[in-house]
Write a structure and sequence with these properties.
mainly alpha; 73 residues
Length: 73
């Protein structure tokens, strides 16, 4: 599990919202060069919070990113 790579990427989203738009436009391109497995890439693309948290990613960080990625509704 590449927890630190996922957390770094999620943190980047919080630092600069334009990165979220880059990610949404082409998530595969955004994740090029990151030390992630194919499964991790899919879970990040889906923002599968429960899977990410169950595998060690910060729950606070994932919940901070949720409304940025999915909206508040």
């Amino acid at each position: 599990m590449s927890v630190s790579a996922i957390e770094r990427m999620l943190w980047e989203f919080g630092e600069k919202e334009a990165r979220i738009e880059q990610f949404k436009a082409d998530p595969d391109a955004y994740m090029v060069g990151r030390d992630l497995t194919d499964l991790e890439r899919e879970k990040v693309k889906d923002l599968d919070v429960s899977w990410l948290v169950d595998h060690g990613v910060s729950s606070m960080l994932t919940m901070m990113i949720w409304p940025m990625m999915k909206g508040v509704d």
